[in-house]
Every structure is written in structure tokens, then in C-alpha cells.
Amino acid sequence: MHAPLKILSYLIVLLMAIAVAYALYISFTYWAGIGV
């Protein structure tokens, strides 16, 4: 049964994508706040 491992890998990739998107959003709002 490789399903759990595949789900775990997908979950890790999803969490990494969310973390990167969140960091970009924070940095964007931070610099936008300074610009304004």
C-alpha cells in the first residue's frame, strides 16, 4: 500500500507551497505598506 506515502508526499508539497505563498504575501504587503 503506497497510498499513505503518496498522500504524505502530496501533503508535504502542499504545505511547502502554502508556506511560500504566505511568505510572498507577507513580504508583498510589507513592502506595499512601506511604499504607501
Quick overview:
The chain crosses the membrane at residues 7-32. The chain has one helix at 3-35.
Give an overview of the whole structure.
- The chain is mainly alpha-helical and 36 residues long.
- It has one domain (1-36).
- The chain is built from one helix and no strands.
- It is rod-shaped, with a radius of gyration of 16 Å.
List keywords for this structure.
0% strand, single chain, mainly alpha, 36 residues, rod-shaped, 1 helix
Q: Flag low-confidence runs.
A: none
Mean pLDDT: 90
Distance between the termini: 54 Å
What's the main sheet like? none
How many extended strands?
0
Count of DSSP H/I helices: 1
Number of spatially distinct domains: 1
Helix content: over 70%
From the helix content, strand content and strand pairing, which structural class follows? mainly alpha
Following the backbone from N to C, one meets helices and strands in this order, namely: H
Helix-strand blueprint:
Elements: H1 3-35
Keywords: Membrane, Transmembrane, Transmembrane helix
